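Example with several molecule types.
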Amino acid sequence: MMRGIVAFLDDRFGSNAGARFVLRKIYPDHWSFYLGEFALYAFMLLVATGVWLTFVYQANPTDAYDSVASLSRAAPIGYLMRQVHHWSAVAFVAAILIHMARIFFTAAFRKPRELNWVVGVTMLILASLTGFTGYSLPNDALSGVGLRIADSVLLAVPFIGNWASDVFTGGGFPGPLILQHLYTIHVYFLPVIIALLLSAHLGMLVYQKHTQFVREPQNVVGRRFWPDYALRTLAALGATVAVILALAATVEINPIDVYGPYKDWTAPNPAVPDWYAAFLDGGLRIGPSFEFTIFGHPIPALFLPAVVMPLVVLSIVIAWPWIDAAFTRDHAKHDVLVPPTFAPWRVGFGSGLIAAGTFLTLAASDDAQALAIHQPVQSMVTFYRILVPLGSLLVGVLAGLFARELRRRSAAHGTESERVVALRRNEHGGFDEEPVGSAL
Amino acid sequence: MALTPVDGHAAYLQQCSSCHGVDLRGGPNAPNIRGVGAADVDFWVGTGRMPAAVPWIEVGHRGPSLPQATINAIVDYVVSVQPGGPPIPLVTTGGDATHGQALFRENCMHCHGATAEGAPIGDQQWAPPLDRATVTQVAEAIRIGPSEMPVFSEAQLSPGDVDDIATYLSDMRAAGGFHGLPVRSSGPVPEGLLGWLAAGLLALLAYAFSPGRKETKS
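Resulting structure tokens for the full complex:
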């Protein structure tokens, strides 16, 4: 039967050659190569549950809240779908960042894979935007406050802010069109671009072949897709679904029936966005109250922390392969990964950036922390104003020094996994070691 | 011990006068309380915020530190010195909880939080959690506006509205407290942490179940 189908397809499409290529593709055997797959499978869960949610969602200010809130009251499966969708989103962006950290610290982004790094970072940005637009769709009091802030940030952009906000909302916040626009952006626009970029991401991966830790630049060493890797990646899919379903079935996420529908005069307290947008909120909370004018055009204090800061950081991250190459004066092609300790300064920079993002994210809940330790909110703001620059610097320097020390030790002693030696029998019957290079 | 009528004047002199003065006109550490009304005195003393241990440190609801008869006597005495101010509201919990929830969201949630768990409101101030407040104390706070809280007049919230809010709060309390699952109502902060735990767990699973060794060509 199976044989018949395969023969049928091959007769008509010549598909066996392609199938052979796919089934024989070699996947390197290292646990960190699964990290990206978790993001991929979370995205698949998002699409599957998201399609289901479009059946009930009403993208207009009158019905939006009830169409989502009724899911948790009337439709048990719909409620589970929403739970899985939101938990997948929260885990999706986290999985992307974990994957990205592996790529960064092992320098997988180097030539010839710079463009795939750019595609990956773009997907991270789009995933966060998709998350934020989706989080805003239920039109509940919490996300309404977030949208209000987003609209204010838009208004703070010089020259085009007013116009952009009017286009976005349909005129005046919340405006008649904002949910319709969010819906189209969240459901059609962003996911389709992510799907296209994902194809490009994987296409480039197959075409350029995997990087690997093994010093064997001519070949990728690992396991074939069939039967080894196919089962492993199925297990990764199963694990992703299991973890997210377990969360969705036990922990309620975004209880909009607690917050109530958005009205101009309502807001829950404290109010924080989902975690991947929280660093922007943190930036707004601790950003200096600094306003200036450009050509007589007043620039509100929101502009620097909420627009300039993320643009600068993301530009550096996107351009990192070229910055890295300029730093190291290394413009050669690399198919072999380096251990993170190989470049302590890269470890330092990456750790500092992660620390800054973490501190900014924590700053977004400074009011809740102030309440927990019974301190004025303003002292938390001061604390984070000091922590974000100095703490990040400190973390970066310490991580770099730590990496340098690890490199020094492994260079001095070598570790079992790094040392490759040839053993030669000597005339006394013992063995001499002859170094033949490093496995890394 | 037999119930004897408590002397409100004596209780006032003993518990309150050192700060508010024997004439109720207040002092350097305490406001004038002439004519503040029964609801005001009953709220402050009934929630245990008064008598204050340290006058300039505001404490939350810590339960009354005086017997109810003494509280009533002090209330009566303060009102007898100068009448006026809001009376102690009569509250029922037989109102419309759904309407109460809507009113709560529009009038109370901004400060006390979506599930009345309390929240910071800027500077050193925080809106307290309402888990210990009786419905009468909630109604009193609505009418007198203690500390940073605004006064809600009967034009803004009618006695029926206050009953509905009280009904909503007592229903919420009866339905297993204010919190339910700990993460419900706590919002995106614990949600984000759990999301990271999930992604981190997947990474750990990959590490644990993959062969993980680097294959060198033999």
